[in-house]
Amino acid sequence: MEEKKEYVVEVEDLTVYYELEKETVKAVNGISFKLEKGRTLGFVGETGSGKTTTALSLLHLVPDPPGVIKSGKVNVCGHDMLALKPHQLTKVRGKDISMIFQDPMTSLDPVFPVVDQIMEAIMLHEDVNKSEAYQKAIKMLELVGIPEERAHEYPHQFSGGMKQRVVISIALACNPQVLIADEPTTALDVTIQAQVLDLMKNLRKQYGTSMIMITHDLGIIAEVCDEVAVIYAGSIVEKGTVREIFKHTRHPYTEGLFNSVPDVKNRGRELTPIPGLMPDPTNLPAGCAFAERCSYATDACKTNKPSEHREGDHVFFCSAYDDPGFAIKRKDS
Amino acid sequence: MGRYILKRILQLIPVVIVVSFLIFIVMDMASGDVVSALSGDMTLAEQELLRHQLGYDRGVLYRFWIYFKGLLHGNLGTSLVMGESVWKLYISRFPNTLVLAFASCVVCYALSLPLGIVSAIKQGSLVDNGCTVLALLGLSIPNFWLGLMLIIAFSLKLKWFPSMDFKGFSSIILPAFTIGTGMMAQLTRTTRSSMVDVIRQDYLRMLRAKGVPENTVITKHAFKNALIPIITIAGQQFAETLGGAVLTETVFTWPGVGRLTISAINSRDTVLATGCILLTTVFHCLVILLVDILYAYIDPRIKGQYVKGKRKGSGK
């Protein structure tokens, strides 16, 4: 590995709260990570763990009110996203960084033909006239496997998988350096999932786009990502390369995630779901957020913040490793 | 689409029959008839003769049958009181009403749409509440009172606008403002609630993520998606003002069809009253049809339904 790495996304100590009338939802609590050019970073975690909020912060799109970015720095392709004015932000969004949302059914404007929605992005960011934008939009659609005849149709005339292809072509229309994919396949059925993932992998190879893949599906992580960050209750609990995380799981929560995945080879094995629920984000515990559900937790875990440990690029936050002899008992599949 | 329009126009026929019949019955139930309204210096014998000539001795159904035969020939009849063709009387007043309806709606739309959009964006804020109060104020103030106050302020004191009759553009401002502000509340509330629904949609976030400026997100995308309920109400309001605004027309002595209709009813001029109300009904239905056609151009999903004809579960 060379010393000099080029980062397209750098996030430092990002904290985002949703301040409601009666309570404050602490969605993201001091997340830091970096994304190297051309690499794919996976965010994995339960629903409500703050993955989407983190992603929206990268675009400075957290709905405000009630969302407030309390602290932190977000640098995308050299732009300090949190300091940019609205008119400057519109120049970065879609051009340097763009995003694919979870539900393709509701991601497209129902009253405009799909080709118009791609052209809109192209004409905003590139100095082209209408017919050039049209040509490029058609090219993008063909790239994701939608023929020109269907370009003038409206979103309601497309199936879910086709809609997600359109969404992908909109997101990639201006060759962004960074693409955030927020559970891009969750709303699709399995065969379509595979097609969409393949498509995204190919496009990434073709354009060298760096990607952040948000998912709760460990299979997708293994399939497309280079690095993984496991998020729990708004904090990263474990971070490393896919190989490290899958082969040398360190954090008890990550262990729990793996144990909850059904195994086809060993169908007799009982699933071991993680007991309990994620802590209420309006009332996070003082110590480790996972302590309540962790089988290794000691009393100290409930009051003290977890300590940071490193093994090369593999980082994890768990006080149990203060004892050098500690090891988790992950069931091997 | 063509078939659909034809079908809707054919649906007007039963409407015309029922409406004309109802007006005839109601006018018959009202006390007095056109002869007693006309009889200034007539002798009783002359009055009886006139009643016989007009068919008042043969019962309401007979008179309706005579009138209806005329209708089938496209003849709206002759006003009993004024002696002129109903069509001519109506059409001479209609442009005035059309102009006033148009101007009132321009005032109403120009105020309601921005207020509704702003309240939706600033939901629950002071601005939102302010817009609601303003719209409710327009609804609550009686038109005739507002009209009179406007006349006192702008015609009598400031002498900016004339208070009476149709004298070019300046005379339309006060009555249009009076009617327009009266209709404002409904459209403002509709715009607000429709926009509030759309503003929460995911596709707006997707638009922002691809770098569309906020103003475009709201005015181009959100507004077009919110438009169906808005044009439904806006179209209805235009159709209603086409029937004439009786109170406002009276306050401003505006020579519109509203006043013509009222005077026909007061003088028990059944033929003129029926003709006026029938024509108003037809224009009303045509405006609603026009709005229905507009739906298809705004929302492609509705167009699909028209093209395919009947669809399971949908009414028309």
Task: Provide the descriptors you would attach to this structure in a database record.
heterodimer; A: 333 residues; alpha/beta; Rossmann fold; eight-stranded mixed sheet; four-stranded antiparallel sheet; 10 helices; 12 strands; globular; B: 316 residues; mainly alpha; MetI-like fold
Topology:
The complex is a heterodimer of chains A (333) and B (316).
Chain A: E1 7-19, E2 24-36, E3 40-44, H1 51-58, E4 67-76, E5 79-80, H2 86-92, E6 97-100, H3 114-125, H4 130-143, H5 160-172, E7 178-182, H6 190-207, E8 210-215, H7 218-224, E9 227-232, E10 235-241, H8 242-247, H9 252-259, H10 299-303, E11 308-311, E12 314-317
Parallel strand pairs in A: 3-8, 3-9, 6-7, 7-8
Antiparallel strand pairs in A: 1-2, 1-4, 4-5, 9-10, 10-12, 11-12
Helix pairs in contact in A: 3-4, 3-5, 4-5, 5-6
Chain B: H1 2-10, H2 12-29, H3 34-38, H4 44-54, H5 60-72, H6 86-121, H7 126-140, H8 143-157, H9 170-199, H10 202-209, H11 214-242, H12 246-251, H13 257-266, H14 270-298, H15 300-308
Helix pairs in contact in B: 2-5, 2-14, 6-7, 6-9, 6-11, 7-9, 8-9, 9-11, 11-14, 13-14, 14-15
Element order of chain B: H for helix, E for strand: HHHHHHHHHHHHHHH
**N-C termini distance of chain A:** 31 Å
Q: What's the Cα radius of gyration of chain A? A: 21 Å
**Structural class by sheet pairing and helices of chain B:** mainly alpha
* CATH homologous superfamily classification of the domain at 94-254 in chain B: MetI-like
CATH architecture of the largest domain in chain A: 3-Layer(aba) Sandwich
- Strand segment count of chain A: 12
Shape assignment of chain B: globular
CATH superfamily of the largest domain in chain A, by name, is: P-loop containing nucleotide triphosphate hydrolases
Total count of helical runs of at least 4 residues of chain A: 10
Q: Shape of chain A, please? A: globular
> In terms of quaternary structure, what is this?
heterodimer
Order of helices and strands of chain A: EEEHEEHEHHHEHEHEEHHHEE
Task: Please name the CATH topology of the domain at 94-254 in chain B.
Answer: MetI-like fold
Helical stretch tally of chain B? 15
Uncertain regions of chain B: pLDDT < 50 for 5+ in a row?
309-316
Number of domains of chain A: 2
Beta-strand portion of chain B reads under 5%
